[in-house]
């Protein structure tokens, strides 16, 4: 579907403000297998569905990590590459407070607080990605280059 009929989320508003073209997809949200369910319903490889993970350093600084749907973040590798002692996932309550989105619907676009964004470097090799659009069961599809233009993420090699 084209972006003119997209639900009015903060993510959609942020992309429109930047003039970014996107399409969108709905899927049946499943708490236990979000990216797998999304990929199956939309008909894409789970590797191209990008999850948005809110994390924090041992010092309490929050950040976002963008990761392939079929991969996990090595927090030890991430901490080492960031030059900090530790990195861990934020609590759901903190993730929601920082982003303004509900867990399962967190998008890196239009977050309540501007957080530094880190991206698994191999995502940069995918021409188009699908990423949460700011609510559960709602994905945005856009060019990876547009994601880079809007978020200016730091590439990292932390997939496992």
Describe the structure.
The protein is α/β, with parallel strands linked by helices and 160 residues long. It has a single domain (3-156), classed as Alpha-Beta Complex (YbaK protein). It is 26% helix and 26% strand. The protein contains 5 helices and 8 strands, in the order αβαββαβαβββαβ. Strands 1, 2, 3, 4, 5, 6, 7 and 8 form an 8-stranded mixed β-sheet that branches. A hairpin with a 5-residue loop joins strand 6 and strand 7. The protein starts with 9 loop residues before the first helix and ends with a strand. The model has no long low-confidence stretch (mean pLDDT 93).
Write a concise keyword list for the protein shown above.
single chain, 160 residues, alpha/beta, YbaK protein, 8-stranded mixed beta sheet, 26% helix
